[in-house]
Design a protein that fits this description.
The chain is α/β, with parallel strands linked by helices. Helices cover 27% and strands 26% of the residues. The chain binds S-adenosylmethionine.
């Protein structure tokens, strides 16, 4: 089907076409962070695109060549986050272990999205996505993220140090300073999926909330780094990456996705 450059600016390059074709054209060691909200295993036909059938051979045939290429284009200090559902994550994980190695499997994040999927009567309701997180090597970019400072923490760290301009608590005659909220855990239940009336909605199926991307981009990239999303959809990754001072490479096979993503990155729609 070919690949075409759809949009180019100082901060972003968007491509329309099959991501495998784009990936083959990109140089190796080029990208700092890859996030992809890939095709899930629901087999479902959405308005804007179709998910894959949950069959091992289908998943392997589709993802293996793409993930091999993603490994090649990632810098040695880079990381990759792949978001999917429980129907295919075990197969994708085996492919990733083969390519990135088990030693570079950093974590599996569970995003408990809260809203949506409430129609099932014959099974437990689907309420989470899985995000597989791998680095390319042991020497990867990592910025520890912390949550909000809770009222309980404020009560504990109740002394003010004028010199350090920070709160502290005393234990055994030693000062312990407040470093911020709790370190982020691998279950994220504080980022709700967007409601149908959310202001963030841009009219694209399975659009993800910006907060989710903000957390990933801040944790695993720095100012000026190149962030890529090869299953870009409405361009949530690109919009957040550019807002955070990163550069963005995005690709989607759908014209509608490219158009919406371009507008968002251009700040017409946030
Ligand atoms: C789950 S959606 C991404 C949604 C996105 N995270 C957002 O916030 O809007 C997956 C996207 O992958 C795209 N896609 C599917 N196969 C593709 C391929 N071979 N190359 C490029 N894009 C593809 C679909 O068109 C769809 O927009």
């Amino acid at each position: 089907m070919g690949i075409e450059q759809y949009y180019k600016s100082e901060h972003a390059m968007l491509y329309k076409g099959d991501n495998l074709e784009l990936l083959k054209l990109l140089p190796e060691q080029h990208i700092d962070l890859i996030y992809c909200d890939i095709l899930y295993g629901t087999g479902k036909k959405f308005k804007d695109y179709q998910d894959l059938k949950p069959k091992k051979e289908i998943i392997e045939e589709f993802y293996e060549p793409r993930l091999n290429e993603m490994y090649r284009v990632l810098k040695d200090t880079g990381s990759i986050y792949l978001q999917m559902d429980y129907r295919i994550s075990h197969w994708v994980r085996c492919i990733m272990d083969n390519i990135f190695t088990y030693e570079n499997f950093r974590n599996k994040i569970v995003w408990k999205y809260g809203l949506g999927n409430a129609r099932t009567e014959t099974n437990y309701l689907d309420k989470h996505d899985e995000i597989l997180y791998y680095s390319k090597t042991k020497n990867f970019t990592w910025n520890l993220q912390r949550g909000e400072v809770t009222p309980q923490m404020k009560a504990k760290y109740c002394h003010w140090d004028e010199d350090e301009q920070n709160y502290y608590m005393m234990n055994n005659n030693k000062k312990y300073y407040l470093k911020g909220g709790k370190k982020l855990e691998n279950v994220w239940d504080d980022i709700p999926n967007m409601s149908s009336t959310s202001k963030e909605r841009v009219g694209y199926d399975t659009q993800k909330p910006k907060l989710l991307l903000e957390r990933i981009i801040k944790s695993s990239s720095n100012d000026g780094d190149i962030v890529a999303d090869f299953f870009m959809g409405s361009g949530t990754t690109g919009a957040v990456a550019v807002e955070l001072g990163r550069k963005f490479i995005g690709c989607d096979i759908s014209e509608k996705a490219c158009l919406i993503a371009k507008d968002r990155i251009n700040k017409n729609v946030i």
